[in-house]
Amino acid sequence: MPWHTWATPAEAEFEQAAHDIKQLRRHSSWIPADWEKLVYRYKKAYGSSIKGL
Q: Distance between CA 43 and CA 15 in Å, rounded?
């Protein structure tokens, strides 16, 4: 069953944001310091770290 059929709106938003960030990481040329800033702000906004990043 796809995650979106049982997830709450907040869970779905979290999963979508995590997916977008992983895609960005794969296709960007950011340096590690840029990623540290992004991860810090993500954790501050969502209250948890980015899975798989």
A: 14
* pLDDT tens-digit series, residues 11-48: 888 788 878 888 888 888 989 899 889 889 988 988 87
Q: CA 48, CA 39: separation in Å to the nearest integer?
A: 9
User: What is the Cα–Cα distance from 21 to 40, expressed in whole angstroms?
Assistant: 13
Structure tokens at 42: 């993500």
User: Is the Cβ–Cβ distance between 28 and 17 less than 8 Å?
Assistant: no
Q: Model pTM greater than 0.70? A: no
- Tokens 């310091």 label which residue? 33
